[in-house]
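Q: What would this complex look like in 3D?
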Amino acid sequence: MLDKLREALLEGKKAEVEALVDQALAAGLPTRQILNDGLIAGMEQVGVLFKNNEIFIPEVLVAARAMNAALSKLEPLLVKDKVEPKGVVVIGTVKGDLHDIGKNLVAMMLKGAGYKIVDLGADVPADRFVEAARSERAGVVALSALLTTTMIQMKAVVEAVRSAGLAIPVIVGGAPLTQDYADEIGARGYAPDAASAVDVVRRILA
Ligand code: B1M
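A: Here is my prediction, written as structure tokens for the whole assembly.
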């Protein structure tokens, strides 16, 4: 069933992807398995085909649309009943970067772990992060980047938060990121995936 899900995602068949997620849930497959072995694995295949010029931006976009629709379906299962938020996390994808799937996943997992999420979307300039962090009294600012050309924007955000006099920790993640890079730009934390992002936030706000 997850084979079919990956294939439908690869072909950008949104309705089919949604139906297969429903079927997988009805068959009792754990949400994490549907997410990791179906959807995320499917997007990895999309990435390989894209890199090898076997598919192009329009195909990647329809796959991304199907992926976001499937994530919305899983969201109620990843997000527990509303409880008093444990803290506020302002999240966004940095300026110049339109990739939002990983960021959405991180936001969902954090919501599920009981944090209030202020999602600024994608292509977010440094000053927007600062404004939101201040007005929302954020405990953490979380940045995502998927491009080697945009990850450098993270440094601008870390510096903007500091120059605004805010002692709010910034955490970073996204495929091209590493712990070394996070250290180099003065980020307080780095997480390689959405589940570890929750651990990092938990540690910082403990
Ligand atoms: Co783009 N793209 N893309 N793309 N795209 C990549 C990233 C790329 C690796 C593809 C490739 O060449 N193999 C490549 C980047 C190369 C590089 O910089 N090293 C690339 C490129 C080159 C581009 C364009 C430049 C292509 C072009 O125009 N010529 C262009 C740039 C546009 C822009 O942003 N300005 C572009 C455009 C696009 C689309 C718009 C078509 C689409 C995005 C749609 C959308 O997001 N709504 C797209 C997609 C979908 C991809 C791939 C195929 C899939 C990304 C994805 O969603 N993965 C991607 C290839 C790949 O990643 N294999 C690729 C699934 C997602 C769950 O994973 O986002 O990595 P990910 O998130 C992970 C972790 O990274 C982590 O947690 C998540 C999982 O648990 N994580 C965090 C993410 N953020 C975090 C934050 C945290 C902690 C963890 O803390 C705060």
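A: To summarize the key features: Residues 20 and 44 are 18 Å apart (CA to CA). The mean pLDDT is 93.
Q: Very helpful, thank you.
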